[in-house]
Design goal:
176 residues; 3 helices; 3-stranded antiparallel beta sheet; Protein Transport Mog1p, Chain A; alpha+beta
């Protein structure tokens, strides 16, 4: 699943650069199939992808220099801990392999303050993202036999305000 996120990120980042003229304001997101809703700031726009692109939904906030990628899939797992287990000492090495990034650094792995029984939050530094983005906060959520990922990408130099903005956005998450 982590490898799928890496591939999706590259596809969507390239698509984003090509599709910015086809962007629209994001506002609120409500996904009935995956049973969640989320509010986004007015400065965040959705980058509209072609219908063939099933990699996820991409949102860009140029004011805070933040990118959000939302991916979701039906799950074969019973819990988020089945695929992202913070207690595994090999997690950082597994992430390096998945992202094909030997410089990847796992900054933190913890239960999220938002839906802690269903969510694991990873914060990683990596060098494989385009456009100079080099840090991510990824919320892995397992809900109703489905897996949802909210991946926020930002610049390490802008980490403190970006993480604050991510917390504001994630505080609006509602799982139905």
């Amino acid at each position: 699943m982590l490898q799928d996120w890496k591939t999706a990120t590259f596809v969507i980042m390239v698509t984003a650069c090509l599709c910015l003229p086809f962007a629209s304001k994001a506002g609120g997101i409500k996904n009935r199939h995956y049973h969640f809703s989320l509010s986004l700031p007015e400065t965040m726009i959705q980058v509209v992808n072609s219908p063939e692109n099933k990699a996820g939904e991409l949102y860009l906030d140029s004011a805070s220099n933040l990118i959000l990628l939302i991916t979701s899939t039906e799950s074969r797992f019973k819990s988020v801990d089945d695929y992202v287990d913070c207690s595994r000492s090999t997690l950082e090495n597994e992430l390096r392999i998945c992202y094909d990034d030997t410089s990847l650094k796992l900054l933190s792995c913890s239960k999220s303050a938002f839906y802690p029984k269903k969510t694991v939050l990873l914060q990683i530094e990596l060098s494989v993202l385009p456009s100079g983005y080099d840090e991510c906060e990824i919320y892995f959520i397992h809900h109703r036999r489905k897996d949802i990922q909210f991946s926020f990408m930002f610049l390490r130099a802008n980490a403190a305000p970006a993480i604050n903005e991510v917390s504001k956005i994630m505080s609006t998450l509602a799982l139905h």
